[in-house]
Amino acid sequence: MFSWLRRKIINFFDWVFSLGRPNSQGRPQSQSPYQNQSGSNSNSLSEPNALPSISNTIRIIGDRACGKTTYLAALIRNPNPDLYNNPIEKIVPKSGASERLENQATGILEEGNIFTPNDILGADEAALDIPNIGFSITLKDKRSRLLQLEIFCRDYSGEIFGDINVMEEQTLKSYIEDCADPDVQGLMILLDATKHRQDSVYEISIRAFIRRLLVSRVDGWKGKIAVTLTKCETLQIYSKRKELKSSKALVEKYFPKTLQSMRNNLTPDIEVEYFSLSAFGMMGPEGVKQPNVEYVKDITDPTLQYARLKNKNVWRPFGLFAPLYWLCTGDRHPNLD
Ligand SMILES: Nc1nc2c(ncn2[C@@H]2O[C@H](COP(=O)(O)OP(=O)(O)OP(=O)(O)O)[C@@H](O)[C@H]2O)c(=O)[nH]1
Ligand SMILES: [Mg+2]
């Protein structure tokens, strides 16, 4: 009841926020800045001198506590970017919800606190009630041309993945319908690298999710899927990531059953790519790098623990932008992985 009311109030303020900002409601404008839907080259923005722009509406799913909210907050905050070879020029929040996340990244992550888990949907709520998070990323594309990515998504709670086989049909339907909305062009499926022992559980969740998604539209679901491993600063995963030099091989190593189950259920026209990232990153000199993370026990329940930044001054996430670049352009950017 209270989460419903809170979301309604948040949505109202987001609407007020959007009145002051052009182009903030998240409707895709074109497939590619260089090639529109009819195949000709065009600049998708009408203002003169506007940058080529690609709009992409995505949904991010993954089990509870896999790092969805922290990912979005770190991305929008973009702390301490590398000065060398870094293609990201700027990030601008385009909705009240994304401004709140940016403030939380500053106020919560940097002050050593943690995000609270997202509220699950109440009986009278739908996924549509979850506020729209919009932000634009200006970056240099693979050929060093400036490009703007306009991203719109919602910060779901992990129930849609973790509880998919036990949740109320009405709640499940509302999430699936939201993911199957014709505006949604891409999905990020986040898998927590530190939970790889859950592979057999996630195998079942992913099968259920993909099957429901594919039958939710008569013409089938046609987006792209970025399978993304989170929390890859963990030492064992970090060194495997370096050794394998491929996020695909890394996901295959840690979640073989989940991947097999997903591939068995997808239609061949759905493109899939693989990514790995950490919202906290590493610290220290090359060769002796350590995760920039410390774990704290919950004061009310010591069986629970949270991760937080160890040193905010050297907060340097990695891999955050690569999945979005691919979802928007269909390409991998050599300086974003
Ligand atoms: N080690 C590590 N921990 C992380 C990372 N990102 C998030 N976490 C931790 O994972 C826990 C859950 O993070 P959230 O971002 O709230 O996860 P969520 O997926 O949004 O969770 P729900 O909203 O409950 O579905 C917190 O303790 C975070 O600090 C990361 O990159 N590395
Ligand atoms: Mg969350």
Textual characterization of the structure:
The chain has 337 residues and is α/β, with parallel strands linked by helices. It has a single domain, classed as Rossmann fold (3-Layer(aba) Sandwich), CATH 3.40.50.300. It contains ten helices and eleven strands. The strands form three sheets. The chain has a seven-stranded mixed sheet with strand order 2-3-4-1-5-6-7. α2 crosses α3 and α6 runs parallel beside α9. The longest helix has 18 residues. It is globular, with a radius of gyration of 19 Å. The N and C termini lie far apart (42 Å). Magnesium ion (MG) binds next to α2.
Write the layout of secondary structure elements.
Layout: H1 2-19, E1 53-62, H2 68-77, E2 88-93, H3 96-109, E3 132-140, E4 146-154, H4 159-162, H5 169-179, E5 184-192, H6 199-215, E6 224-230, H7 235-244, H8 247-254, H9 256-265, E7 272-276, E8 282-283, E9 290-291, E10 293-297, E11 305-309, H10 322-329
This protein binds guanosine-5'-triphosphate and magnesium ion (MG).
Magnesium ion is lined by residues 68-69, 117-118, 155.
